[in-house]
Amino acid sequence: MERLTINGKTIEVDVDPSTPLLWAIREQAGLTGTKYGCGIAQCGACTVHIDGRAVRSCVVPVAAAVGTQITTIEGLAAGGVLHKVQKAWVDNEVPQCGYCQTGMIMAVAALLEVTPTPTDADINATITNICRCGTFQQVREAIHAAAKA
Ligand code: FES
Ligand code: FES
Fold first, then answer.
1. Are residues 145 and 83 in contact, defined by beta-carbon separation less than 8 angstroms?
2. What 8-state DSSP symbol labels residue 24?
3. Strands laid side by side in the 2-6 sheet
4. Whose alpha carbon is nearest atom 4 of ligand 2?
5. Cα of 57 from ligand 1 centre, angstroms
6. Distances (CA, A) of 133 to 1, 6, 137, 145
7. Fewer CB atoms < 10 Å away: N or C end of the chain?
């Protein structure tokens, strides 16, 4: 048993400590907004925050997340109010199939915490998430919109 704090709630997860955090989030905590894409830290679909930093949860062992504050897409909106990144996503109609989008949004929310008005070069360097639907231009526009919000 390991104890994890996810979206402010501490839960016990019955997994081997080496289990990827992604599976504890999805299968033990039941938070299925975080997606599995590649399993090798390449696509970003599994992005969550650990202590405010974006991480790819498919390659973070549960043991490394014990004692941290984990935030998933389900915990991003505070008090029922959309996070400014979520709102920009809606306003700019970013998602297509949606599969990659929770990871995109979590990566962008973490970027804006450290770089509130990112340049295109900042975005290119940081938001390396893969979208099979090719929403990259809408993602870029929504990032700039969120930065102005
Ligand atoms: S599933 Fe984690 S980076 Fe692709
Ligand atoms: S919106 Fe379909 S994979 Fe990105």
1. no
2. I
3. 9-13, 2-6, 69-71, 47-50, 53-56
4. 131
5. 7
6. 39, 29, 11, 21
7. N
Tokens 């994890």, residue located: 4
Is the backbone of residue 98 left (phi > 0), alpha (psi -120 to 50) or beta?
left
Tell me which residue of 63, 67, 64, 57 sits closest to 16, measured CA to CA: 63
pTM of the model: 0.97
Eight-class DSSP state of 97: S
pLDDT in tens, 24-33: 999 999 999 9
Cα 34 to ligand 1 centre (Å): 10
